[in-house]
Amino acid sequence: MKCKICASLFSLAIFFVSCAQQNNNATTLPATAFQAEVQKQGAQVLDVRTAGEFQGGHIKNALQANWNDAQEFENRTQHLDKNATVYVYCQAGGRSAAAQAFLIEKGYKVVNLEGGMSNWKMNNLPVEGSNNQAQMRVEDFDKVIASNKLVLVDIGATWCPPCRKMLPTIDQVKKQFSDKLYFLAVDGGVDLDVMKHLKFETLPTFIIYKNGKEVWRKTGIVDAAEFNKVLAN
Fold first, then answer.
1. CATH architecture of 2-122
2. Which one is the CATH code of 138-232: 3.30.70.330, 3.40.50.720, 3.40.30.10, 2.60.120.200?
């Protein structure tokens, strides 16, 4: 079964790469030219590798959506801005070429990094990210929940497109309920023990606790009115 799945994914990747090569809108840039473009204000940089690869080192301000996870990729990339170019990369250029073709079909303008992160590093260009950041301890998380009457937990990450889209809404909710709400941010790329403890599934996830008990949970985009309805009661 695994062999069949791998073969199917490989065939799909080849199909999209072929489409990219035939599409006049598919642009590939060498590392130095790609760097010049992504340094421009408002550039959308998309890493299509796995979360583990991303945490091992990525381009500054990059978002992350795993091309090999169809659901995750579609859920996250739907929040990209079609009015701005998407600069996409993977480890060697294959996955990103397939992702590029897919996104072009969806109406995005996409530029691919030639040779991926391997080529980027060969050119001694800057890489961010580290696996050495300390995790939040489960016991510390539980202590916060138990010692506050009303807690909003936000499981997100700076590299997650819908998480970034939620920032203005979360800021609005925090200000509105600042007198009674404890806000606790869980890093979706670091706090793995806490996420396992919470039976986490996808980014972003929001959980509200009242008097130490979970009373509400929602994934994805949530508007301020929905938060207000739960928090005000």
1. 3-Layer(aba) Sandwich (3.40)
2. 3.40.30.10
Q: Is 163 a catalytic residue?
A: yes
Residue with tokens 């940089």: 45
Contacts 24+ apart (CB under 8 A), 17-22: 17/94, 17/97, 17/98, 17/101, 19/101, 19/104, 19/105, 20/97, 20/98, 20/100, 20/101, 20/104, 20/112, 21/97
pTM for the whole structure: 0.71
Does the structure show a pLDDT above 70 at 131? no
What is the per-residue pLDDT across 42-70, written as a single tens digit (0 to 9) for each? 899 999 999 988 988 999 999 999 999 99
